[in-house]
């Protein structure tokens, strides 16, 4: 049984202390310093999230007089192949310039040349990427959270929403080191806990050797879904083509500075706009391996690339290349497809939100990779962290505190007590490996109906087997059970969404061999999932795109 409990009351509770969560906390205190703001973080706020250290770019900035939010909306409509609501994406771009200036005021470094920010084109239209050179980005924003007077609840994994009728009343958390149950009441809850990084297995076979932050296991999605929230884009099973065996990004840093992409035939990869999707498709079409060539570049340009790679986002790359004996002046860099993962920052999976981050549940908002603001990258995390905080503050001013239903808290106590009694023959890591191996076998591209249904059958089987198969010996292993449950539940949602979208779209990321063609006549729409009456199966709804006038005619008229 649970021996220790902690009760916390706050006004705004933010689940997840990554980029979106930190920005939401800071913004809430900026506009409403009298409100109590708390951040519940599974790891340690100072180093958690997809940006655990530094960053080399703010991917989406509409610089006045140079680009515009409207042009960005055109670009992302093309990149998302028409499946993107206009309101949230336009709101993100509209906030981006002031966001950059705010970060700059905090000491974040954006290089300039001749009095102008260094910009690069990585979208189908416009130069929206502004280069950044800030190895301490996460420390800067994390320290600001503390300085603003926010309460930080570290090492605590949110696993269930508390409800009062149709309204969110708080969150139940679990301390991953002590086993303590944390009962946190709040007027507004913002889900910023990322997507699902631990979906299929990476080629290395390491459970946590993934491209995105391995702490992201779909927890926020799973508990929001159980409470009645809607999700969309779960069929968008993303993978990236990046540095083989280390899973570190390279494309934007190199291609935009003159590097050349080569396929396994030794031929340059041609195309007007070479993207991650282009490189992934080379592997899918049997033209791998893919390489990035820098040796033709001037020495000063190679040094510029090395300076970015070795000092900013993942400094470990310098040791990696040295250990492999790779000198960019002599050797091409091999790229490889990552594991598949789900998120909105690099894809389109997430909770359905409006332009201020609200979900369909009263008092529940979302930002960052947890919210479906398609392909929002770091800008999306920061901008919607702010937007959600703005709305959460308004909710706190107008709503009375809800009283959580006792049944939910009692159910959480019983759940944790049951986990601590688990005494099966298999440890959690072995079980997770099997789950994710089968996800890779059945729920990722190339997809078809038979594969997807087999994958769903396996997820059902794993959900049933978990209690009797896995053993728990300490509080940390108990947290792994909660994570595995989230992985299984989220994989089930993804499989159901993939079954529903009877076409292929977004290149390889939703490629169905039984429906190999893109069908713009019927499928420029959202697949929305919500809790249904059938056990372990969501209700599937098809919803039209919320188009703004300037998006009219962009897709499929401008489709490549």
From TrEMBL:
GO terms for biological process: anaerobic respiration. GO terms for molecular function: electron transfer activity; flavin adenine dinucleotide binding; succinate dehydrogenase activity. GO terms for cellular component: plasma membrane. Residues 11-373 form the FAD-dependent oxidoreductase 2 FAD-binding domain. Keywords: Flavoprotein, Oxidoreductase. Residues 478-548 form the Fumarate reductase/succinate dehydrogenase flavoprotein-like C-terminal domain. InterPro entries: FAD-dep_OxRdtase_2_FAD-bd (IPR003953), FAD/NAD-bd_sf (IPR036188), Fum_R/Succ_DH_flav-like_C_sf (IPR037099), Fum_Rdtase/Succ_DH_flav-like_C (IPR015939), SdhA/FrdA/AprA (IPR030664). The keyword Flavoprotein applies. This is Fumarate reductase/succinate dehydrogenase flavoprotein subunit.
């Amino acid at each position: 049984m649970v021996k220790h409990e902690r009760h916390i009351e706050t006004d705004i509770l933010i689940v997840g202390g990554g980029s979106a969560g930190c920005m939401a906390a800071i913004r809430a205190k900026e506009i409403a310093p009298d409100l109590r703001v708390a951040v519940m973080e599974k790891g340690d706020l100072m180093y958690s999230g997809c940006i655990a250290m530094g960053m080399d770019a703010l991917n989406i900035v509409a610089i006045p007089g140079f680009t515009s939010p409207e042009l960005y909306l055109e670009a992302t409509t093309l990149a998302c192949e028409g499946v993107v609501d206009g309101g949230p994406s336009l709101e993100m771009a509209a906030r981006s310039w002031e966001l950059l200036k705010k970060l700059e005021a905090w000491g974040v470094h954006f290089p300039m040349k001749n009095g102008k920010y260094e910009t690069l084109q990585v979208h189908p239209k416009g130069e929206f990427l502004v280069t950044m050179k800030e190895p301490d980005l996460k420390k800067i924003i994390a320290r600001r959270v503390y300085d603003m007077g926010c309460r930080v609840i570290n090492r605590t994994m949110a696993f269930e929403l508390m409800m009062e009728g149709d309204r969110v009343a708080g969150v139940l958390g679990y301390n991953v080191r002590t086993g303590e149950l944390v009962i946190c009441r709040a007027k507004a809850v913002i889900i910023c806990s990322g997507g699902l990084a631990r979906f299929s297995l990476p080629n290395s076979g390491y459970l946590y050797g993934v491209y995105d932050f391995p702490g992201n296991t779909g927890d926020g999605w799973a508990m929001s879904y159980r409470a009645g929230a809607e999700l969309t884009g779960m069929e968008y099973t993303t993978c990236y083509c990046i540095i083989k065996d280390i899973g570190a990004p390279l494309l934007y840093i190199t291609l935009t500075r003159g590097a050349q992409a080569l396929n396994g035939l030794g031929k340059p990869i041609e195309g007007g706009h070479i993207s991650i999707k282009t490189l992934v498709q080379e592997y899918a079409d049997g033209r791998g391996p893919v390489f990035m060539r820098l040796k033709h570049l001037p020495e000063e340009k190679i040094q510029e690339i090395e300076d970015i790679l070795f000092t900013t986002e993942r400094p470990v790359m310098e040791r990696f290349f040295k250990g492999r004996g790779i000198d960019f002046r002599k050797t091409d860099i091999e790229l490889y497809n990552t594991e598949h993962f789900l998120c909105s920052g690099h894809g389109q999976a997430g909770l359905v939100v409006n332009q201020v981050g609200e979900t369909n549940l009263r008092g529940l908002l979302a930002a960052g990779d947890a919210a479906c603001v398609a392909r929002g990258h770091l800008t999306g995390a920061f901008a919607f962290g702010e937007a959600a905080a703005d709305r959460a503050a308004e909710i706190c001013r107008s709503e009375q505190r809800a009283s959580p239903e006792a049944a939910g808290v009692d159910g959480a106590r019983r759940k944790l007590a049951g986990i601590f009694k688990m005494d099966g023959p298999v440890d959690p890591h072995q079980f997770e490996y099997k789950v994710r191996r089968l996800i890779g076998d059945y729920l990722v591209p190339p997809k078809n109906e038979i594969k997807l249904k087999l994958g769903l059958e396996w997820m059902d089987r794993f959900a049933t087997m978990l209690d009797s198969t896995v053993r728990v010996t300490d509080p940390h292993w108990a947290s792994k059970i909660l994570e595995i449950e989230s992985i299984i539940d989220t994989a089930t949602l993804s499989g159901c969404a993939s079954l529903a979208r009877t076409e292929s779209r977004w290149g390889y990321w939703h490629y169905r061999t039984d429906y190999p063609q893109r069908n713009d006549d019927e499928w420029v729409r959202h697949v929305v999932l919500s809790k249904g009456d059938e056990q372990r199966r969501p209700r599937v709804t098809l919803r039209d795109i919320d188009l703004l006038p300037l998006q009219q005619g962009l897709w499929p008229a401008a489709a490549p």
